[in-house]
Design goal:
By secondary structure, this protein is mainly α. It folds into 2 domains: 99 residues, no CATH class; 71 residues, no CATH class. Helix 2 packs across helix 5, helix 8 runs antiparallel to helix 10 and helix 9 runs parallel beside helix 10.
Length: 229
């Protein structure tokens, strides 16, 4: 909820009203910092503010994010005023009780791999929810959440199209290596759920191989949609 606190800035709202009046794009100030600050204050670990900070751009490197947070805390400017203005209408952005993490998620505070996966999953959730909410606003009668996907069918269609695309590719050491990487990913897809890493240099076909792994891993474990994988 805090990710859009910065829209409480007068300049941001003035820009939005200007667009409504003129029908033209009006430059508005960035609004991520006003959300990052309360996220840092109320979440149990500073790095969890990353998804809020990057929800309209990309995740920042940990050290860059830490430096930006420290600078905001030292010199908040008028951000506290904006936060207070929004909190008067949406008090949930400043919870009175500490936010605690489930035990499994708390591992991210000490385990670098769990930390990275947790931040990336939260980032995906924030971006996805933000887009779905915007879609519902602009198209209130449209269906914005699709039916569960048939992963087995998708995997079959994916393989058919891949084979069609490479049908005329000449035999070469590089293409042979790509095919070997692809087959190894299909074999790995039958493994138990967990963390898998694909170390392949540029040009090695990791886009196809990674997608095939994801689809077939979902099939192997009875997943129905991408939210489960």
């Amino acid at each position: 909820m805090v990710h859009d606190v910065g829209k409480g800035q007068c300049a941001w709202r003035d820009g939005l009203l200007g667009e409504v009046r003129t029908g033209m794009r009006v430059e508005r100030p960035p609004h991520r910092n006003e959300g990052t600050l309360p996220a840092t204050r109320h979440l149990p670990a500073w790095f969890l503010a990353g998804p809020v900070d990057g929800h309209h751009a990309r995740l920042a490197h940990g050290e860059k994010l830490r430096a930006r947070i420290k600078a905001m805390i030292k010199n908040p400017g008028d951000r506290n005023e904006v936060i207070a203005r929004v909190a008067a209408r949406v008090p949930e952005i400043t919870p009175q009780k500490p936010i605690t993490m489930p035990e499994a998620m708390a591992l991210g505070r000490t385990d670098p791999v769990a930390h990275e996966l947790l931040v990336r999953m939260l980032f995906s959730c924030v971006v996805d929810a933000d887009r779905l909410d915007a879609g519902s606003h602009f198209r209130p009668t449209a269906r914005v959440i699709r039916e569960d996907a048939d992963m087995k069918e998708l995997a079959t269609r994916f393989e058919e199209r891949r084979l069609a695309k490479i049908a005329n590719s000449p035999s070469s050491p590089l293409n042979d290596a790509r095919e070997d990487i692809y087959r190894r990913c299909l074999e790995a897809a039958l493994g138990e759920p967990g963390i898998y890493r694909l170390h392949v240099p540029t040009g090695g076909g990791k886009t196809y191989a990674g997608a095939a792994f994801a689809l077939n891993h979902a099939v192997a474990h009875g997943r129905q949609d991408d939210a489960d994988t």
